[in-house]
Amino acid sequence: MTSTARLSRLSTPFRNVPGRYLARRASSTSQNPKKETSVAHHHRSPTHHHHVSYSETDDAVPWLAKQPLHRLSLADLVKHGRPPLNAEALLSSARFTLSLLPIRLAHRIQALRNLPYIVVSNPNIRKIYNNYQHSLSTLLPWQGRTISNLEDEIRFTEVLAELVNTHTDTIPILARGFLECRKYISPAEVTRFLDHHLRARIGTRLVAEQHIALHYSSSPHFDPSSSPTPCPENPGYIGVIDTALRPASTVDSCGTFVADICELNYGVRPEWTIKGSPETTFAFVPMHLEYIITELLKNAFRATVENGQSKSPVEITIAPEPPSSAVTTTPPVITLSPPSVSLGAFNKDHIQPLDDNAPGVTIRIRDRGGGISPEVLPHIWSYSFTTFSESEDDPPGAWSDDALSVISAASSGGSSIAGLGYGLPLSRAYAEYFGGGIAVQSLHGWGTDVYLRLKGVGRIE
């Protein structure tokens, strides 16, 4: 495909952007022509990136927010090939990423604008709003042009790294803001907003991290250890996706982590057993599975210990979905080219077709923790703030020591965010993002079964 054809294809979605925005952008570009510079690959400061003004961003948001969101699939993320990518495959990944992110960010900005003004005026909510405005302003200069050489791709990847870093603490900051605004917005409205917002955030972050990982594991820039986001030096990975993820291994590693927490807090170390088909593998995002399993085991272990059943092991059953499962749609077979070059950690034969991969997997977590009371069961999918002080004697915005520790842990990347009441609904968001789900069956007075169903990418060849 010629560079002209690529430019035409890339700029098509933006040809109807308001003329006022394009005129201002064109004027800005003409006054600051691109200079030929050497490639200071991993040392260029992100602060040197050009971005448009907030007023220009404001002009672009309404139109971009009306564009349909591309429904991201795991197949989208692996379609550019198996690392190390050659230059053309890497540029294709960058162009695909650019085609998605501005629209996704604009949808989030518009959703924040639709909140009551007094809520958006809250300093924490406003901070998130400004973060999205800033990130969009760094991406808008790339629109209407193509990423056609490695110098452009390097700069674009640096913009993505800044975007990922900017939005690291979105969840705890939103939690602070909505708690402080609880007099002005109902719990149902908060849950509805967060459900859409956090699901959208999953996709936005994932598509950015995927390209960053592919960048650092590509032939032109091979240096996985320098990646600012996860970039495993493992030939089984395509970016951040493990093409042969073994859920049993994830259960054991997360179980050890959660059992350590229980032993520290309760002086008792719960046990667990894995049944079913522990050898099952499928293609999925390990970070997502780790988050979900950690949160579900926290609930199961805590209930088991507090119900005096610590000697009864939590039972985890892994059931692969058979390839011939009678479902309405069959997961596609994704055919990938072998690596263009073998170097570094990938200096081995490319992975053979993963015919043994399951198209999906169901994991049941069964505990003897006494079940969930009928009064609580209807609310388990709501985003709540039960760890915070809500006493009438507390001034607005008052925080308990427990609340501060939870926010602090969440802000530093800890998994204690479940203390905000986000654990179960956010786990469901991760599970449902690629077509899976979570179901809970409670036998009050006895225990709880949680069914986690995940859809993989199908066979990868």
TrEMBL record:
Pfam families: BCDHK_Adom3, HATPase_c. It comes from Cercophora samala. InterPro entries: AK/P_DHK_N_sf, BCDHK/PDK_N, BCKD/PDK, HATPase_C_sf, HATPase_dom, His_kinase_dom, Sig_transdc_His_kin-like_C. Keywords: ATP-binding, Kinase, Mitochondrion, Nucleotide-binding, Phosphoprotein, Transferase, Transit peptide. It is found in: Mitochondrion matrix. It is an enzyme of class 2 (transferase). One of its GO terms (cellular component) is mitochondrial matrix. This is Protein-serine/threonine kinase. GO terms for biological process: regulation of glucose metabolic process. Residues 286-458 form the Histidine kinase domain. SUPFAM superfamilies: alpha-ketoacid dehydrogenase kinase, N-terminal domain (SSF69012), ATPase domain of HSP90 chaperone/DNA topoisomerase II/histidine kinase (SSF55874). Its EC number is 2.7.11.-. Belongs to the PDK/BCKDK protein kinase family. The lineage of its organism: Eukaryota, Fungi, Dikarya, Ascomycota, Pezizomycotina. Residues 18-53 are annotated as: Disordered. GO terms for molecular function: ATP binding; pyruvate dehydrogenase (acetyl-transferring) kinase activity. Residues 40-52 have a biased composition (Basic residues). It comes from the Eukaryota.
